[in-house]
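User: Here's a protein and a ligand (iron/sulfur cluster). What would the complex look like?
Assistant: Let me lay out the input and then the predicted complex.
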Amino acid sequence: MKLDSKIPQGPVGEKWSNYKEHAKLVNPSNKRKLEIIVVGTGLAGASAAATLAELGYKVKAFCFQDSPRRAHSIAAQGGINAAKNYKNDGDSVYRLFYDTIKGGDFRAREGNVHRLAEVSVNIIDQCVAQGVPFAREYGGLLDNRSFGGAQVSRTFYARGQTGQQLLIGAYQALERQVGLGNVKMYSRHEMLDIVKIDGKARGIIAKNLVTGELERHFGHAVLLCTGGYGNVFFLSTNAMGSNVTAAWRAHKRGAFFGNPCYTQIHPTCIPVSGDYQSKLTLMSESLRNDGRIWVPKRKEDCGKHPNDIKEEDRDYYLERKYPSYGNLCPRDIASRAAKEVCDEGRGVGKTGLAVYLDFSDAINRLGLETVKARYGELFPMYQNITGEDPLKQPMRIFPAVHYTMGGLWVDYELMTTVPGLYALGEANFSDHGANRLGASALMQGLADGYFVIPYTIGNYLSGEIFTKSIPTDHPAFAEAENNVRERINTLKNNGGKTPVDEFHKQLGKIMWEYCGMARNAEGLTKARQMIQTLKADFWNDARITGEINEFNPELDKAMRVADFLELGELMVVDALNRNESCGGHFRTEYQDNGEAKRNDDEYAYVSAWEFKGDNQEPELHKEELVYEAIQLQVRSYK
Amino acid sequence: MKINLKVWRQKNTNTSGKIVNYVVNEVNPDMSFLEMIDVLNGQLVRKGEDPIAFDHDCREGICGMCSMVVDGRPHGPLHGTTTCQLYMRNYKDGDTIYVEPFRAHAFPIIKDLAVNRGAFDRIIAAGGFVSVSTGQAQDANAIPVEKAVADNAMDAAACIGCGACVAACPNGSAMLFTAAKVSHLNQLPQGKAEATRRALNMVKQMDAEGFGKCSNIGACEAECPKEISIENIARLNREYIKAVFTGE
Ligand code: SF4
Ligand code: FES
């Protein structure tokens, strides 16, 4: 199968307009006959479901949480980028496009990223109209701040709760459509398989998590807006329930997986405190605007109280190494630099796995009240978790898994390699290349849902207007349901003894150790073996208590871990294949004095993996990345 | 340290429940309250017993999913925090802690500590939005909003929809939740056009869901993890009275 990315012809700045002018439309009376399934209700899912329903399609939306408003987009703190140039500081669509491509270490598709930058301005307009309470200046106009990887102020924010406010905006738009009868909402439902008929996606099997029943749902098209897979590491900043199951099930039904090894390790998280730890908490990157990162110059000082370490004995290593971006260098670089100083033995805190993020300069310059007001809830949150007051002594931070740039491979229309099956938001691989810039995830989720899919889905559905709803007693539905039921029964009846979390923790340790911030061929090869053994153990020995036909979070967790185990192996395979360092993927064999060494001659492509059967080698397909508007160059933030 | 837990166990909506005693040894002060329950659940699974079902997701105080009454207080003893943000350093060795679900007529128990809060979504669906479809918006800076107004709206919009206000209220009223949304949207110029309809429809839905009446007790504000002010209720009442008088 040949990958067709369907990038429209023409100069990069005209591709999207050209596309929109020529895309096929579906007339209003036909829209009413077309049913769309949307799985996941975060920024991408809620915005897509609401917008498609506004257009007149019949929408069914699914989320595993008790309400669509809980999706993990809600936890994004910092902000959302848009090329509004309200600050008159030289921003433009081109510059946001350029920054995103460069930030992604030249591993993203030009056409998609330019479109993203174009629609970024519409997102802000839409959200303000919905009543999203963005921060404002005294003149009543919108305020902006700067963010890592950019030299302009283009980030819009709502205190430290930007994701929450944007999600609530999208959720309210969604609930409006629920109230109008245009969307049927299924909360506490988890998608466990895709149903394909004649090669096209035609529905899903979903588990009602309250009753345990398996349900069949038909759709003319299926949209997966199910987020990223950072929880493969067990410890991450993702919510406890965030999982790869929907995407992985789609993969096993023929959707290629793009760049699975691209993981974002966020530099500013609260360090791990013990073995019982269930998740990690992010401290917004926006803190790097005013906080300065340092460690002691000498190992001997690491045990001292930070306030007792003199200015000249501190190493502000980001400012030293990257003078033009300093503390605002991109995430992958900041994370790796933190790992390096800790590896040198200059890490701080009980575990030696932390660096300081210090606000004392900002407090002296701006005053305590201004600093407090700027970061809203973040300081109390830190204090509550660690028992230390960051206004009195520096925060301790350490990198943690935060986001996955990889995801289901999609073309320009956001369609996967399965016709009629789409992936939006973090669930797809498309816009961030090998590293995502701060404040770009919210932008992409909403771009895909509000402004991209409503246009691109018409191109497919216009060919489906004569397709009647397929009754769910069709054999393909029965086959998919049986497949799910069998997996559940096998797990439930294996006579195992060990709690699911144990396996998940072990998987996380393998991934963090060998497929985390630094990777090499030897470690990855070993990791693959270890994962295979762990997977076998899991199926033999994971204990699922309770009944199948009841509310059973333990069983739900097990189904997710089963898929994480398979995904983990593919990540390792992908990391092993990519013999270069780029963005979040750092292979220790490929570096220049600690800086990532890309290999554009051989690896300027997207890896799209095809599933060939359980315990079979996956097949690699390559989508060559063509740069027309931007020249490939070494990424420098010095 | 050692902690004694007395936890509400209930198989499903239709059965009755009871308090069951557990002991958790080796509780670390840096653990979160939910991590302590994870540890206990791990032990229960090893023994082949059913672990305690509870709702949680973000574990950082923003999604609104966690919902426990800890020692008689929704979200536990600390002011302005959710259960997931409660850390064991607030307890001492040998303490006994009662853990129960949010209780309210409109929030039926699903299992153990998990309840159904779907009624909140239906209140929002009745009017908690601005009717602007995608693509209809004008330039964002074409609508200046006074900073103080934007800040007030943000204060109200900080509600996480957890339902602690309902669980705290002796009447099981959802006034604080509803008022926070009305107040967020009605203060902003974008929300003015349908301000009256919004207030009326949301209150009507709230009543239909079986939430109790508000009698200004103030327990909601005291237990709200996001410190949503009871002034929002006064604002909703003014809006509501105005609406009734103008005969809408
Ligand atoms: S008002 Fe407070 S207690 Fe009530 S739902 Fe909102 S955040 Fe929770
Ligand atoms: S789990 Fe999200 S608020 Fe507690």
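Summary: The helical segments of chain B are 33-46, 118-125, 147-157, 164-168, 175-187, 195-208, 219-223, 231-245.
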